[in-house]
Amino acid sequence: MNPVRVLVVDDQAVFRRVMSVVVEQTEGFVLIGCAESGEESIVTAKVLRPDLVLMDVNLPGIDGMEAARRLRADTTAAVVLLSTYDEDDWDGQAQECGAVAYVPKSTFGPDRLTAVWAMTGG
Predict the structure, then answer these.
(1) CATH number of 4-119
(2) What DSSP designation does 50 have?
(3) What's the whole-model pTM score?
């Protein structure tokens, strides 16, 4: 089976690195790239064609929710939103923009990555 190709999007280098390490250490997933803004994520996703995009909610320029809407319209990638907000506050909003799920950064790890990918039917 081919590994799940993941694009990480976050404007903060430390969070990009943490998410990248989680992806790299989770069996069946491979990091194919990173982006620092919503606009960059759209361009990068069109070039790299990820299966899954891990997207911060708060980004410079267009935010993660708008970037998710655009990615869902232009690509086949599944989008998972991440931020520091409480999960209960964001689940519905994530679905409204076409994201598969919202995951607080504090709970993101290999188990959550695997679980959200399973939600996509992958």
Answers:
(1) 3.40.50.2300
(2) -
(3) 0.93
